[in-house]
Amino acid sequence: MKEILQDYSFTELQALVGELGEQKYRAGQLYRGLMRGKRISDITEISKAFKEKLLARFEDEPVRIREVFASSDGTEKYLFELADGNIIEGVLMSYKYGRTQCVSTQVGCRMNCAFCASGLNGLIRNLTAGEILSQILTVNAKFGGTPEKRAVTNVVLMGSGEPLDNYENTVRFLKNVTAEGGICISARNISLSTCGLVPKMYELAQEGIPVNLTVSLHSPSDEERQRIMPVAKAYTIAEILKACENYFDKTGRRYIFEYSLIAGENSDAKHAQMLVGLLRGKPCHVNLIRLNEVKEKNLSGISEKEAYRFLGLLEKGGLSATLRRQIGADIGGACGQLRAGYLEEKKD
Ligand code: SAH
Fold first, then answer.
1. Which pLDDT value is given to residue 348?
2. Which residues lie with the beta carbon below 6 Å from any ligand 1 atom?
3. For residue 166, how far is its CA from the centre of ligand 1 (angstroms)?
4. Are both 86 and 209 inside the same structural domain?
5. Which of 83, 122, 262, 268 is deepest in the core (most CB within 10 A)?
6. Which atom belonging to ligand 1 lies closest to the Cα atom of 113?
7. Is 131 a catalytic residue?
8. Active-site residue, selected from the candidate residues 59, 89, 131, 265
9. How many domains, in total, are found in the chain?
10. Quick one: how far is CA 80 from the chain centroid?
11. Which residue segment(s) compose the domain that 159 sits in?
12. CATH code of 206's domain
């Protein structure tokens, strides 16, 4: 695979343009084109000779929309093809205020959570910063968005992969996506979700990019959490909570816990009570999700009524909590499900 030009910051592009023997102002033209989601070959402002130099070294289109699935609720699910033929997925949710795009950070995942389809085939490879960014640039352009008038207004790092397991590329992406003069999505409008890689949570707090931090908790007990999330063997819930508090101290951002309700695993009244004991008084919010059942995994969700009962117990205990509306369930809404389905179809 060639290099990815969208990995570069504007300053790095300026240096590159100099290296390639072009005048400095060309960097601005190139950057504007890229931030508009254009392929190198489609940027009309730059000369043919310069394009040829770039195309000898860089991918013309690092992320291509391969298929779009529309849900009856307005959610869209994307299958993207990378330059090396790998497939990743993303989701776009439309709201009154704008659009939220869910992006992937890895091809596959090595965390192997019991309920999640992303880890079914392990980790294939990390995405580069530019491959993460290009998912957004491409979809923003599809809706006629520009950096000045964005169609994609919010971003969540909740697609396939564990963002903090691909730390350097993820942080580079966050710097580039929030940079002035680029597509410039504010850190406040970006949420990063992690399964709880504690040392990296501390590092992230120091980066000066105050994105919303979301942690996949899924259980109030270390022992039970280990059953559904192998990563729980490496870091305890107490360590995760400390890292969250540090994140709050450093960034002033309230943190969020994701909690997918699984029948017979983490959704009894006792779990709700334990969660209240664990989180009461902390500057956090709990996002309940009803499990999206993955056919390769032997786990079931709970009914909507039971989920509301669980929510009621958290609220009664004084926690800030919501039950997330199940979106795009008819189009393989959960992480990795669409890609897993696609890979399986190809096998047949
Ligand atoms: N690796 C990161 C990013 C994934 S974010 C993380 O673990 O946080 C996606 C969220 O959806 C996570 O909270 C994940 O645990 C959850 N999830 C994955 N598969 C799911 C499923 N089948 N049903 C419900 N939630 C699921």
1. 46
2. 113, 115-116, 158, 162, 193-195, 216, 258, 260, 289, 291-292, 294, 334-335
3. 16
4. yes
5. 262
6. 15
7. no
8. 89
9. 2
10. 14
11. 63-347
12. 3.20.20.70
